[in-house]
Structures are given as structure tokens and as C-alpha cells.
Amino acid sequence: MRFSVSAIPLAAAMLAAAVPAAAQDREVPYWATLREDEVNMRTGPSGNYPIEWVYRRQGLPMKVVRLNQGWRLVEDPDGARGWIAARLLNPARGAIVIGDDPVEIREAPSGEAPVRWRAEPGVVGKLGDCDNGWCRFDVTGRNGWVREDRLWGAGQP
To answer: Does the record bear Signal in its keywords (predicted)?
Structure first.
């Protein structure tokens, strides 16, 4: 059987389309959190690349911006980008308090609701549902509502 030169790119495109959607995991960008207490960020998508950062904070939110086989190009809360092995990322949503001052954690999603407690910038927690500019936020079992604009990891990635 003979193939024309123009059939080769077509065959390659059909083969690429045949890759199962599951192999792509999800559409990017999306949010994830660090699965382990210590995670290395590398300069490229393999264990052979140098380590650029070592994160020591399980649950720290990351924005996944690109996929490459078993690796994810991520952006951290400070804007640093690098590669982390996919197995070290958890699809559970998390967030980190941002800003210069402590944020008020309220009983209900309203600026009029009583303050339960305050969280300092840099506090990491589990992110719940967000609605009308407020997000449910849980820090080791203490939870309440926080303004969405005070959490990195909330909203659209």
C-alpha cells in the first residue's frame, strides 16, 4: 500500500486525536494543591531537571497552566513558575490568605456577619464554595466565610 506525502500529516493528526481524553487529565488552567509536606519544583518536566524551589507546605494552592505527560507546569502564589510531578498535586481546592493585614473570617457570607476569627496573610486552608464574592474557608477545622479577593486560589484560574 502506498501513501502520498500529504497523507502522512493527516495520519499523524488522526493518531493524535486518538489519544484518550483521560490522558490529558483536565483542561488548563485549573487549581490544585500540594499533596505532600515537601514538593520539588523543577526547571523542566522530568526528574533530570534542576530543582528550582522546594515547597514545605502541604495544601499550598498552585495554578496548573500546562500539562506534559506526568508533569504539570504550575504557578505559585508569588508568581514563580516551574514543573511539578502530577502525582504530587491534589485536585482538592485550597487557598492562601493574601494582602498586608489579617483577614476577617465571618460566620456568614456578609460583611455584616459576626467575625469568628482572623487569619494572617500566608495562612493556607481548604477552599469551599464561593458565591457573590465570598468563599467558605477551612483552616484545620476552623471555618467561616472570607472575601474572595483576599484568597489566592479562589475564583477562575
So the answer is: yes
Residue 25: band (very low, low, confident or very high) from pLDDT cuts 50, 70, 90: low
Phi, psi of 66 (to 5 degrees): -155, 150
Res 65 pLDDT > 50 = yes
pTM of the model: 0.82
Whether residue 42 lies inside any domain: the answer is yes
Q: Are 137 and 130 in contact (CB under 8 A)?
A: no
Number of Cβ atoms within 10 Å of the Cβ of 14: 9
Question: Tens digits of per-residue pLDDT, 9-22?
Answer: 444 444 444 433 34
73 assigned to some structural domain: yes
Q: Are residues 77 and 25 in contact, defined by beta-carbon separation less than 8 angstroms?
A: no
Distance CA 36, CA 22 (A): 24
**What number of helices (H) and strands (E) belong to the chain?**
1, 14
CB 61 within 8 A of CB 31: yes
CA distance 103 to 123: 10
Domain CATH for 82: 2.30.30.40
| 64 and 100, same domain (yes or no) | no
Asked whether residue 103 falls in the same domain as residue 147, the answer is yes
